[in-house]
Amino acid sequence: MRQNFDVKGGPQLGRNNLPRLRDAMKAQGLDGFYIPHEDEYQNEYLPACNDRLAWATGFTGSAGAAMVFQDMAAIFADGRYTLQVRDQTDPDLIEVHGLPEPGPFGWLEKQSLKGKTLGYDPRLMTPNDLATLEGAAKKAGAALKAVDDNPIDQAWDDRPPEPMAKTVPHSVEHAGQDATDKRAKIAAALREDGADAAVITSPASIAWAFNIRGGDVACSPLPLSRAILKSDGTADLFIDPRKTSDALRTHLGNQVRLRPMEELEPALAELGKQSVSLDPALASAWFFGKLEAAGAEIIRQPDPVLLPKACKNETEIKGTEAAHIRDGAALTRFLHWLDTEAQSGEVTEIDAALKLESFREDLGGLNDLSFETISGAGPHGALPHYRVSSASNLKLDRGTLYLVDSGGQYLDGTTDVTRTVPIGTPSADMKRHYTLVLQGHIALATVRFPEGTTGTHLDSLARYPLWQAGLDYDHGTGHGVGVYLGVHEGPQRIAKAWNSIALRPGMIVSNEPGFYREGQYGIRIENLQYVTPPTNIPGGERKMLGFRNLTWAPLARGLIDLDILSTDERAWVDAYHAEVLEKIGPLVEGEVADWLEAQCAPL
Question: What contacts 24+ positions apart, CB below 8 Å, involve 491-496?
Answer without folding.
Answer: 491/302, 491/306, 491/307, 491/310, 492/310, 492/454, 492/455, 493/455, 494/444, 494/455, 494/456, 494/458, 494/459, 494/462, 495/455, 495/456, 495/459, 496/456, 496/459
